[in-house]
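can u pls check wat happens w/ pyridoxal-5'-phosphate
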Amino acid sequence: MDRLARSECPAFTARRARRAEASGASQDPIVWAEARGANVVDADGNVFVDLTSGFGVQAVGHAHPRVVEAVRRQAGRLLHGLGDLHPSDVKIALLDRLAELAPWDEARVVLSLNGADAVETALKTAVLATGRSGVLAFEGGYHGLAHGPLAACGYAPGFRRPFAAQLNPHVRFAAWHEAELGDALAAVDAAWGDDVGAVLVEPLQGRGGIRPAPPGFLAALAERCRARGALLVVDEILTGLGRCGARWLSVAQGAEPDLLCAGKALGGGLPVSACLGRADVMAAWGAPDGEAIHTGTFYGHPLGAAAALAALDVLEEEALAARAQELGERFAGALHEATGRPVTGAGLMLGVRYEGSTLPLVARLLARGYLTLPAGAGATTLQLAPPLTIDEALLDGFVATLAELGDGAG
Ligand SMILES: Cc1ncc(COP(=O)(O)O)c(C=O)c1O
């Protein structure tokens, strides 16, 4: 940790110190050295159960053999291509595959690296397609921290404040209501304005505290977008590709997005993200002046594309969406029984709600061998998002430990 503090941006070290002070427990991280399946081994050889999937990335489990083999094979063939100028064969295969997985008859796809990139692509697409710069986003929403998505980051105003002068000033925030559909829609209507070209929404808020929307909300939002000439941009970077029990949670909720962002699990552990769009919407990128006005050196990287194709195969062949749904229901029930606390979420993206900060609990769980994350304002939610391949016995062990620790939140 001393070495880290000498070289890493001080913001991260400062966070640890602040958290230690707030929680009264050491917030020193472990140092990851190896990981397989749902287990992480630290630099000292301690083994942990990963209930974070590495920020939701390792849906197929760490180092899935199919993903590792695909990366190895690709590394022996082609490490880097020429992006959008001379594409690699494997990039074309991934684009084809994603267009097939998209929820429209005809789709077009832009590949990128981080979730934030995919959201930037979607926001730019919405400007081109609607001619409007306004974005309606939600309090508690999180879409990444590049300038485009940061402007729409409702998770905490403190993330935006230092950079406010550089951010899109046409972002409106609507309150997020979990319980009543009427309240949720009234908040949308109150925040709406004529300049809104994109409504950016997570079908289930993740970092914001595993906060669902009322049933019917997303479908009603899609209708409003259609009626008012805006595009519905659904951020499925965390919820998508099976984590919440369906390929796309928004579609399972009865909504048809215009643009859909995927990331995290998509690359099977490599940085791959994508903005998927209905073909007629993506046509707005057409008629360029001879240059691609939106690209990145590493977008569609061959290694990432190979890993993504393998991860998508695993998700499908091992029917992991259905497994997430089934296992998630049992896990949620057991968590509620063990803690007496409200449990929110879908599939294997669950939150246990506490009244105080969960930081001390997260530290105690780490000491017992479980990697978990705090979520939500005030860190009052214990976020649980294990690999979709996790052995159920590991979840049982976690529930027993949580029960044993008692009401460990601050
Ligand atoms: C819903 C959602 N959108 C976007 C992002 C940003 O992704 P990235 O950190 O890869 O830029 C995240 C990351 O946590 C996320 O949870």
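The chain has a mean pLDDT of 95.
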